[in-house]
Amino acid sequence: CQCKPSDDGGIAPCDETCFNRLLGTECVGDNETKTGGNNSYWNCNHGLECGNRKLSRRLFAKCRPQRDKGKGWGLVVVHGIKLGGLVQEYVGEVVDEKEKKQRLGSWAKEHP
């Protein structure tokens, strides 16, 4: 990235204007030495000051699962978050109740 730290120590580098963030890419680097080290994907030298490493640092909002009548399961944020803030990283797929039952039935047959 091309981000520069603020002169007054106020805003951390790699904010909403960070080129990596605008491209939907998280900054990568070594948190200790502020270099890429042996990482060939290195793209930022701001270390822990970087504001675009929330996924790799697991800085998620605290959530709990909740079932809603007619809508199924979802996550509810326990504490408020800032507008545009990261809630959670989602990895997987969304399936309906019918598909869930079918998959669980298949799994039960394969793993008696």
UniProtKB/TrEMBL annotation:
GO terms in the biological process aspect are:
methylation
Keywords on record: Chromosome, Methyltransferase, Nucleus, S-adenosyl-L-methionine, Transferase
- Spell out the InterPro entries in the cross-references: AWS_dom, SET2_Histone-Lys_MeTrsfase, SET_dom_sf
Per the database record, which ranges form the AWS domain?
1-59
**Gene Ontology CC entries for this record:** chromosome; nucleus
Classify the main location.
nucleus
GO MF entries: histone methyltransferase activity
Q: Where in the cell is it found?
A: Chromosome; Nucleus
User: Does the record bear Metal-binding in its keywords?
Assistant: no
The protein here is known as: AWS domain-containing protein
Cite the source lineage.
Answer: Eukaryota, Sar, Stramenopiles, Ochrophyta, Bacillariophyta
